[in-house]
Amino acid sequence: KAVVVSDAAAQRRARQTVINLGLSLAATLGIVLALVLIVPRDDSNRIQPVDYKDIAAGAVETTALPLIVPELPSTGWWSNSAKIKTSPTDGTDASWTAGFVGPNNEFIGFTQAFTTNPTWIALQLSEKTQTGTYDESWQIFEATRPNKPVKTRDYMLVTTIGNDTILVYGTADAAVIQAFADSVKQQIQSNYP
Question: Is the peptide bond before 73 cis (omega within 30 degrees of 0)?
């Protein structure tokens, strides 16, 4: 009988250990859930909008360059970056870049480079092939190996005016990028007589 009693006691202790483990796991999960629900979260955008038109106006005053200041495609678009480099180390005289974010987190980038050379253009178009033209003024370049998710420069429109080169690229649909390029083309016609 003594052996049977000790076996029953051992079984009861083993069951109690499993029950205690389950209770401590439930308590831990309850504490974690309470912390997740109680701690405030900031879901706002960390990237602040940039007034690209104001930056461009200031750059035109100081550099006298014929900067293209694109119009945004539609409501819900905003600029997340804009900068002018007047002494870049990439082989151009100057470059003006701006980035735009759409209502569905799509992106359009814009670069206007002054006095570009074939090496600079080749670097911009590395791992891309020309797949066509758009509106007789733009050459379409696409990545030779499509990326998933799409990368910023997988689809690119390129035009050259004299020694200057303009790039329009992004993750937005090709039609949206092309509509943006139409806005750029209108400004090219007024800035480059």
Answer: no
77, 80, 110, 149 from 45: Cα distances, Å: 14, 11, 22, 21
pLDDT, tens digit, 9 for 90 and up, residues 84-109? 998 877 778 899 999 999 888 899 99
Say whether pLDDT at 43 is over 70.
Answer: no
CA 39 to chain CA mean position, Å: 29
Residue 161 structure tokens? 């005016």
Residue 47 tokens read as: 């990237």
127, 147 contact by CB (below 8 A) = no
Quick one: how far is CA 108 from the chain centroid?
Answer: 8
Q: What are 79's two structure tokens? A: 């600029």
Residues 67-95 as b or e (16 or more Cβ within 10 Å = b): bbbbebbeeebbbbebebbeeeeeebbbb
Provide, for the chain, the percentages of residues in helix, strand and coil under a 3-state DSSP scheme, each rounded to the nearest 5: 40, 25, 35
- What's the whole-number mean pLDDT along residues 122-149? 90
The answer to whether 118 and 168 are in contact (CB under 8 A) is no
Helix (H, G, I), strand (E, B) or coil at 134: strand
Gap between the Cα atoms of 170 and 66, Å rounded: 23
Read off the tokens for 16: 């109690």
